[in-house]
Each structure stands twice: as structure tokens, then as C-alpha cells.
Amino acid sequence: MHFSMKTLATTLAILGCSIVAASARNQTIANAVDGFVRPAYRNLATETERLVPTLDKLCKSGDASALEAARAAFTNAALAWSEVEIIRLGPVTEQNRLDRILHWPDRKGIGLKQVQAALAQKDLTAIDAERLAQKSVAMQGFGALEFLLFGTGSDDVAAWRETFRCHYAQAVADNISSMSSDISKEWDAPEGFAKTWENPSPQNNLYRSDTEALTDLIEIFVQGIELVRDVRTNGFLGEKPEGDKAKQAIYWRSNGTALSLGANIEGLNKLFEASRMADLATGDNAYLGNSIGFEFGNAQNALAAVKGKPIDAVLRDPDQRQKLDYFRTVTSSLSELFGTRLSGALDLTAGFSSLDGD
Amino acid sequence: MVSKLIDRRAFLKAAGVGFLASLTPRGIAMAAEADAVFATAFQRRDGSYGAAILTERGKLVHSIALPERGHDVAYDPISRRSVVFARQPGTFAVVFDPGGKAEPLTINSVEGRHFYGHGAFSPDGKLLYATENDFDNAAGMVGVYDASDGFRRIGEFPTYGVGPHELVLLGDGHSLAICNGGIETHPDFGRAKLNLATMKPSFVFIDRETGELLEKHELPSALHKLSIRHMDIDHRGTIWFGCQHEGPASERPLLIGKAERGKAFGLVDMPAEILGGFRNYIGSVAANRDAGTIAVSSPQGNAYAVLDATSGAVLSATTLTEVCGLAPDDAGFLASTGTGEIVAPDSTSVTEPDYVWDNHLLRIRL
Predict the structure, then answer these.
(1) Cβ separation of B250 and A206 shorter than 8 Å?
(2) Rounded to a whole number, what is the largest CA-CA distance in chain B?
(3) pLDDT at position B360, please?
(4) Average pLDDT of the residues of chain A
(5) DSSP of B50-78, one letter per residue?
(6) Between A12, A94, A248, which is nearest B188 by CB?
(7) CB A353 to CB B359 under 8 A?
(8) By the CB < 8 Å criterion, does B182 face chain A?
């Protein structure tokens, strides 16, 4: 063997050492958890819990006003999810919850076919929330529920009163509500993931240093903006109008596309403000907080004119489509502000190899 | 310097009779004396991309510009040409002369396919194999290119899995080993991972001439989110592979495995403190066949480790910010980082101020 004892001793000496000495509690992470993550999941738990009785009512009465109420509750719950779905660490990563709450995109329409097959066959295992939780991820979340409430056949007056369709929708709502409540409780637990993230130390299995804890925080922004731009926006908005694919837009059936994009951005904005991450960028970089806030505002302004509208109509109207195009430009700017400038200012390894490896 | 010469002689021996026979005595002498160089993709501080040739001391010898981000480089010692592949979901590969004397040639992926960033030449240098995505069908493919005819695409065969990543040619000259990472992506949705709940990575051996599946290995179903991605071949022909875990961070699966045709396939035990430092992510795997060692890097964990390829024991673990690229050098490894460092086996470090280095580093001999 060609390794000298000296090399071995040197390298063994650094094993287990953190990159940056960890303080007891990382205040930025604690701010993020207390100021955004916990309240956002509590809000999701509340909105999804509110959805359940609206479906109970719909299944009993089957009337148009009950359908309208259930649809409104769906939109509120889906937007609560849009705001918090940018969090892709901790309890939501357990038990496939991220995919089970929203499996999207359903590129080959497999989920849609599974939902349609369950409807056609009146699959009894789909109307029991516990059994539904064991089925395909595409059958048990917001995507399935949107089709049930807004998709083909949903406007039929006979679709809802004590029907299989309605009972299936109830099971989906129960399932989403139960997962949301569990995630919220796990974030609130005193010995849970929050404690691990907030308290980096060489003995901490997940976060050995403040640097690692903060890197995961900045990753939420970098990956969240990538999700909004590359997946949610570029997924349906072509480089040119002929490349548009309206039916690849998230929540197109419920006219929720721009609302959801707006909620994604709002979640990122709230997290940024709550964490007070901007305060960490000082000196020549002190401008970053304002620049980021300005771009978050621009993103919302761009969406304001198209929120709640059918996405195919938005895409056909050159003025409105241009708003989405501008929104995309703003997300690129945000990507640069977080991924390059803020991460550089904070001396985090948010680069190139670590953050976006292959 | 003595050890370098020994390494090069050993390399020539390992390269085989065919390679020696193709060189004149003067060529052998030149090959033995020539400095090894290293190829890697990079990003410049202004955001532009390219591929570079570096000396053992990390000095930039030559570079080419790329339209978008590159990934790994393959090299053909016969024609002395390199190919840098676009990072997924890129649609180009660029053939270039590491000596900088010939114009680069761009290969565009065909409609319905994109590159995954890795590839390899046939031993005679006539064919180039690249991992590709048949994205509408979510099927891994190997694109076959005729290097003697302007890198015309002459065919393809399946990888028998989803999301293929690194591909290497075995010492028998006929079998390809391919890591099917298991992750479905589609260019309509950037790099979004579309099938995490159901992903099923695999490791396959394929006959490069017939495209026939020779062997297919999978990890136990509980590890279906462990994406098998990179590999290298040790001094005895055993393949060492590295994985990236797509499941929750609360899980800490083993990340390194071994595969041999017709023999064992499985993960390798590793001390918890080393494994934990990788943060569920191995970015590259490189063998030093002269030293009998394997190096694995984790840019997520800012660390790389060197293992004894015979015993599997960890010989060293080193903290290095954003380390990913690894290539054998002397008795150790040259390491490159996403912050722009090139670190030699003796721990001396150099930077090219305008450059940060991409995930892979390839040792080549001009």
C-alpha cells in the first residue's frame, strides 16, 4: 500500500470534524422553522381539515352549492400546499408523503388513467382512506382530487349524491388531511426534525455544522425557484406560443395554475423574511435582501393579472401570456440572486457541484 | 519521479499487448516520458461553460467552449480524441483534440433523445457509446456513433432500465457496464424527478456488439430509492459503484457497492462516521489501478474517501469543500472542486481563478 502513516494520521485526525464550528442553536434556522415552516404546515393541516366536511356535505346533498363550496375548499387547501411544498426536507420526505400529497407532473397521464379506472370499476379500495394510502401515489393526492371535483363528469348533477365519485373524493381528502396533520405534528414535536436542523453539532447525524444547516436552507430557495421555473412554468409555457401546452399546466382544471405559482413564490418570500437570512449578508452584499424582496414583488405583480383565469385562455391572449413570460424572467433573476449571489455572500457551498450534482 | 515512471510502465503493461504493438519503440518512449493530463468540464465565473485539459499540477493547457454545461469526458488513445458530453438533459457532445490542434466537432443528439453526460469508446476507437434518454418512453438507451465517419449515429440499443448514467467498457473489450439510476426525467420538466415513489435502479452488463442483456442486478426492494450512478474498475476487474439516495435524509443507506460479471453484486460496509459524512450522495468514483485503491467523493458532504480495493477498508477520508472530480495520480488521486480547486495527492492545491470544476475528472495520456 502506498499510503504513508503520516497521510493516514492526518486524514484520521480530521474525521468527524465539522467544516465550521457549530454554535449551540442556529438562530436563522430557528427563525425559519418558527416563523414559516411550522405555521405553514399548521395552515395546511387546517385547510385540508376544512375540506373534509365540505365533501361530506356534498356527498349528502349532491347540490350545486355544495359542489361550489367543496371546490372552493379544494382551492384553499391546494394553495396552502403550494405555499409549503417548497419545503422538501424533514417529515414530508418520509413515507412518500411529498408524492402522495401531490404527484405532479403526471406526464404520461398514468395517474389520470388510474383515477378513471377506479371510477369506472367502482374500486372499493379507493373509498377507504387507509387502503387508498397504500395505492398508487397518483391516486391519493391533490391531482386525483382535482380531477374528481373539476374533471370530466364533475358538472353532472347526478355525479355527487352518495356516489362512488364523491366517496372516493372524501377518501382522498381524508388521506391528504391525515398526512398534513401528521407532518405538522412532527414539525411541532420538541424532539423532532426541527431540533435536529436547528442544532448542528459534530454529533448530529444530519447536520454537523452551521454550514450544512444553512446550506439546506438556501437549497430550499434555489430548488424552489427551479421547481417554479423549470417544472411548473416551463412545463406548459413554451419558448414561443406554438410550444405552449396548456394541459401540462398544474391545476389547469380548477383554474389554479397562476394562483399556485403565486403561492409557491409567496411561500419562498415568507420563508426568506421569517428566516432573516438577508441579515447575514453584510457589507457590499447588504443590498441582497432588498433586491430579492423586489424580485419577489415583481413575480407577484406579473401573476396578478392572470390569477384564477383558465390557463388556455391566458396563453391565447398575447398580453396575458407576456405576463407569464415576464414571470419566468423574474424567476431566472431570483435563481441568480439566491444560487450565486446570496450563497456566495454567505460563503455557502451552494454551487455548482454540491447543490445541483448529477 | 521514480514512482511516476513505475506507474507509467505499469500503465503500459496494463494497457495490453495490442496497445504496445500499435506504437513504435520511439512512441513507447514518448508515452513513457509524457506527462499525464486531465480532462474536465467547467464553468467560468461569468457563467459560461466549457471543457479543459489540465496538467498534473492543475495548470490549464487548453480549453474549448461549450454551449451549455458539460459533464464527463471520454478519451480514445488511438485517435487521441476526447469527447465531452452535455449534462442531462443536454443534447450535444463535443469531440475535441486535447492537444488543441484540431477543430472541435459537435454531435447533436437525435430527435427524442438527450445525453446523460457519460460515454466510452470501443477499444479500437472506432465506435463511441453514450448513455441517452428515450424520454417519451422513459427508456434508457445507448447511442452508438461511428468515430471513423464523423461520429455519425449508426444505431442504439436499450439499457434495460430507466435513467442510465455512467457507462464503462470492461477489460474483455466486449461488455459494457451501465448504471441505470432509475430516475425518470423529461425535458419538458427540466431536471424534475418524475417517478421517485416507484423508481427502480439497476446495474446491467450488455454486449456492446449485439446489445444483448448479459446480466441485470437490482438492490433489495427496500433500497429502491438508492440511485446507482457512477463507477470505475479496480486493478482486479471488479467494478465499484457509488449511489445517491433519493429517500429521506433520516435514512442512511450504504452508498458504495461492488459488481463483478457472473459473481457478486452488492453494497459494501463502511464505518458510520465516514458514511454519514457523505450525506447520502456520492458524486464520482475513481480507481487507481496501480495503487489498488478506489476513491469516492461527496460534494454534498464536502468529503472524499480512499478505500483499499482488496479489503474494502477505508484508508483515508479528507474534507474538501465541494469535492467531486477524482482521477488517479501517482499513488493517490487528483481531486477537483466546485469552488475551483485542484488538489494533488500531496495535498498541494491550485486554483484557476476564473474557473470552477464540474463533477468529473479524467486522466488521459497524450
Answers:
(1) yes
(2) 58
(3) 97
(4) 92
(5) EEEEEETT--EEEEEEESS-EEEEEEETT
(6) A248
(7) yes
(8) no
Alpha-carbon distance B317 to nearest alpha carbon in chain A (angstroms): 6
Chain B touched by A332 (CB under 8 Å): no
What pLDDT is attached to residue B54?
Answer: 94
End-to-end CA distance of chain A: 32
Cβ–Cβ of B274/A234 closer than 8 Å? no
Give the start-to-end residue ranges of the domains of chain A: 31-189, 209-345
Which residue is associated with the grid cell 480524441?
Answer: B81
Inform me whether the pLDDT recorded for B126 exceeds 60.
Answer: yes
CB contacts under 8 A, B 229-258 vs A, are 229, 244, 247-250, 252
The model's pLDDT over B4-27, given as tens digits with 9 standing for 90+, comes to: 333 333 333 333 333 333 333 433
Residue of B nearest to A134 (CA): B197
Q: How many CB atoms neighbour CB B33 within 10 A?
A: 9
pLDDT for B262-287, tens place per residue? Answer: 998 999 999 999 999 999 999 999 99
By C-alpha distance, which of B287, B5, B39, B317 is closest to B171? B287
Q: Which fold has domain A31-189?
A: A middle domain of Talin 1 (1.20.1420)
Q: In what order do the strands lie in the sheet with B314-319?
A: B284-288, B293-298, B303-308, B314-319
Give the minimum alpha-carbon distance from B132 to chain A in angstroms, rounded to a whole number: 14
Cβ neighbours of B1 (radius 10 Å): 6
Whether residue A160 is predicted with pLDDT greater than 50 in this model: the reply is yes
Instruction: Give the pLDDT confidence score for residue B1 in this predicted structure.
Output: 29
**What is the Cα–Cα distance from B356 to B43, expressed in whole angstroms?**
5
pLDDT at B26: 39
Q: How far apart are CA A146 and CA A140, in angstroms?
A: 11
How close A12 comes to chain B (CA, Å)?
Answer: 7
B337 to chain A, any CB pair closer than 8 A? The answer is yes
Name the DSSP letter for residue B169. Answer: E
pLDDT in tens, B47-67: 899 999 999 888 898 899 999
Which residues in chain B are closer than 8 Å to A12, comparing Cβ atoms? 316-317
Which segments of chain A does DSSP mark as H helices, in order? 5-14, 27-32, 38-61, 64-84, 97-101, 110-121, 129-132, 142-150, 164-188, 193-198, 210-226, 257-275, 288-304, 311-316, 318-336, 343-345
CATH architecture of A209-345: Up-down Bundle (1.20)
